């Protein structure tokens, strides 16, 4: 017996709408559904167009401990066609890279942008 598919990854956030706005404006992710959990948490599921996996953003009810992500603890990685053009578009929208672009030993080019709460987002242009 084994699992057959990754469905979603949950990330807790302090300000749900700020995070949804970041992932939509910076990366083009779309909210696929929203609801309140039985425990009162506000949930938004985000999806890359054309992908089945989702990112679940979760804001706990008032009074819950604040989220503070340790550096280099976790990151999301997204493929992009042209990292230079993508980075220029990010900058035009008011988002700056926090690291890179850096060419890797495999020939791909990577860069990072910081999401709210300190989550890192890696952008990867495949080797050519």
Give the number of domains. Answer: 2
How would you name the CATH homologous superfamily of the largest domain? Answer: 2,3-Dihydroxybiphenyl 1,2-Dioxygenase, domain 1
**CATH fold name of the largest domain:** 2,3-Dihydroxybiphenyl 1,2-Dioxygenase, domain 1
The percent range for helix content is 10-25%
Low-confidence spans: none
Structural class: alpha/beta
Shape: globular
Q: Provide the β-strand percentage band.
A: 35-45%
Give me the Rg, rounded.
16 Å
Mean pLDDT across the residues is 93
The number of strands is: 8
Give the CATH architecture of the largest domain: Roll
Following the backbone from N to C, one meets helices and strands in this order, namely: EHEEEEHEEE
Q: Within the largest sheet, what's the order of strands? A: 1-4-3-2
Give the terminus-to-terminus CA distance: 38 Å
Could you characterize what this model shows?
By secondary structure, the chain is an alpha/beta fold. The protein has 2 domains: 1-67, 2,3-Dihydroxybiphenyl 1,2-Dioxygenase, domain 1; 68-128, 2,3-Dihydroxybiphenyl 1,2-Dioxygenase, domain 1 (Roll), CATH 3.10.180. The protein has 2 helices and 8 strands. The strands form 2 sheets. The protein has a 4-stranded mixed beta sheet, covered by helices on one side. A 4-stranded mixed beta sheet has the order 5-8-7-6. The N and C termini lie far apart (38 Å). The model has no long low-confidence stretch (mean pLDDT 93).
